[in-house]
Amino acid sequence: MTMADEQKQEQNEELEQDLQSQEVDVEEQKQVEDPLEEAIARVQELEAQLAETAKKEQDLLLRTRAEIDNIRRRTEQDVEKAHKFALEKFAKDILNTIDNLERALATPANIEDESIKALFDGVELTLKELLATVARFGVEPVGVVGEVFNPDLHQAISMQPMEGFETNQITTVLQKGYLLNGRVIRPAMVMVAA
């Protein structure tokens, strides 16, 4: 062998070694890249799960806040209604006294006698004061002659044709009705024009 052949053979061997080392490097690089790609994929998967969990948590937080606001609003309304209508039972009971005073004033009496006139005036003043007192607490009368019949506020006892009144107009109030802060505590008993 000549020197030139030996050099070529050495170069070939070096090239083969370089190729083998490059192949080993590529295999090592593949082995390194595979776990790296797995790690990147796992990180992306975990980030997606984290984002989904954060979204669910945010949704749950918003729903919880809304529910708390609803409960607070309902409680405030219940307390407000309790304050408004706490006097309902008392107001219903006091209506009997008002009715009795009105009946006493409606009976014909000889008011020319000074003692009867004084008694009559005292009952009238008592009734006015009692009506003013219950009005301050939100109790107001309903049922006036000439008013249009409203089944939410009035209870019709009878219907009869009457001159001077249109159909469904109240002709006679037998017993006044009352509202407490807009709620009917006793409907007015009325007679209605047919």
TrEMBL record:
GO terms for biological process: protein folding. It is found in: Cytoplasm. One of its GO terms (molecular function) is unfolded protein binding. Its main location: cytoplasm. Residues 1-11 have a biased composition (Basic and acidic residues). It holds the Pfam family GrpE. Residues 1-36 are annotated as: Disordered. Keywords: Chaperone, Cytoplasm, Stress response. GO terms for cellular component: cytosol. CDD domains: GrpE (cd00446). Homodimer. HAMAP family: GrpE. Belongs to the GrpE family. Participates actively in the response to hyperosmotic and heat shock by preventing the aggregation of stress-denatured proteins, in association with DnaK and GrpE. It is the nucleotide exchange factor for DnaK and may function as a thermosensor. Unfolded proteins bind initially to DnaJ; upon interaction with the DnaJ-bound protein, DnaK hydrolyzes its bound ATP, resulting in the formation of a stable complex. GrpE releases ADP from DnaK; ATP binding to DnaK triggers the release of the substrate protein, thus completing the reaction cycle. This is Protein GrpE.
